[in-house]
Amino acid sequence: MSELQIGLLVAGALAVLAVYGYSLWQQRQHRRHFGATFRQRGEDVLIRDAAEDQPVGILGEAALGHALPLEPARAAARSERRRWPRECGLLDAATDYIAVLSFRSPANAQTLAQLWQQRFDFRKNVCVCGLNAASGAWEKMLAESPSSYSAFKLALQLADRSGAASEAKLEDFRNLVRGIAEQQQAEAELPDVASAAARALELDNFCAGVDQMVGLNILPGGARAFSGSEIASAAALHGLVLRADGIFHLQDARGFTVFSLGNYDNIPFLHQGLDQMQVNGLTLLLDVPCVEQPARRFDDMAVLARQLAMSLHAAVVDDHRVALGEPGIAQIREQVATIESRMLAYPIVPGSPQARRLFF
């Protein structure tokens, strides 16, 4: 193969990758700006009736509407379960439908082979915690986890940015767990599906009211445009890194985005050819529920907006291209602080693993 042919193949591959990356970026932008909020908006109410969280045994008991006496071994297992550590930090009854399986002898991850195979069928995140038989601590489980476990907590997330988990999917999940329990002769605690579906709708409605992104635009004066090279230099100076989505990100120590800097015209920045770009403006974006202490992070973003505007000889403006002074920025900050307070009162801590799952 000649050097010319190789060069053409490489160029073609790069073009395909660029188009694919741009398509993904456009989908993400559309979802975040036009489809990001949950489908229903309603009162900020969470149903927390203790009766709704009562477990349902699979071998009779509440599932059949009457109680059966427990075998001695099962009664001992239930007594032992009361001494378990109660927390599995990844899961929360407010945001997840949580089923519990307990075993007479330790089980491994392959016990849940059917769940691993079908986990994408439920259209919501599935998370599993195992009670490590050796350490006695709950830990996140994967299909490849090598440890042995005394019990599993299997959770289906009740809502995300695409909406609430449907009662039908919750029922499917419960039936799958029930089947695993029967196959493994395990004891199962299966919460009521109807009440979980109601909680899912309430959670969906609450999240719709706090699912907000705030932006600060940085526009050049007159007919001037920013060059890609000066944007890259200014971004690097302030610690922003260009990622595969075509947007510059400021990340925290764990690699999570604090806020981002994108093209005002929604055209992604690409490493190749960045120095050739002419850009009409920039937008700093803060995904409010997904960052820790969002009001403080907004303060940081406002400072960065002013610094970028100064270094690029530009102005900070709102979506109507009106200059944003201190009163305007303070008003936006107040809205961010209100969202933060509402989330903490729910309680969903902004930027927590729980929040990042809900607002993904």
Helix content: 25-40%
The name CATH uses for the topology of the largest domain is Cell Division Protein Zipa, Chain: A
What's the arrangement of strands in the largest beta sheet? 10-11-12-14-8-15
Q: What fraction of the residues are assigned to beta strands by DSSP?
A: 15-25%
Structural class determined from secondary elements? alpha+beta
Number of E-state strands: 15
Provide the domain count. Answer: 2
Order of helices and strands: HHEHEEEEEHEHEEHEEEEEHEHH
Instruction: State the CATH class of the largest domain.
Output: Alpha Beta
Which spans have pLDDT < 50 for at least 5 consecutive residues? 13-77, 79-84
Average pLDDT value? 82
* Termini separation: 45 Å
What does the radius of gyration come to? Answer: 25 Å
Largest sheet: 6 strands, antiparallel
Q: Determine the CATH superfamily of the largest domain.
A: ZipA, C-terminal FtsZ-binding domain
Q: How many H/I helices?
A: 9
The shape is elongated
How would you describe this protein?
The chain has helices at residues 3-34, 72-81, 113-118, 167-184, 193-210, 228-237, 294-311, 326-345, 353-358; strands at residues 96-107, 126-132, 138-140, 149-157, 159-160, 163-164, 187-189, 213-220, 226-227, 241-242, 248-251, 257-263, 278-279, 282-287, 314-317. It is an alpha+beta fold. It folds into 2 domains: 17-36 and 211-358, Cell Division Protein Zipa, Chain: A, CATH 3.30.1400; 50-204, no CATH class. The strands form 4 sheets. Strands 10-11-12-14-8-15 form a 6-stranded antiparallel beta sheet, covered by helices on one side. Helix 4 (167-184) packs across helix 5 (193-210) and helix 7 packs antiparallel against helix 8 (326-345). The longest helix is centred in the first third of the chain and has 32 residues, at 3-34. The chain is elongated. The model is unreliable at 13-77 and 79-84 (pLDDT under 50).
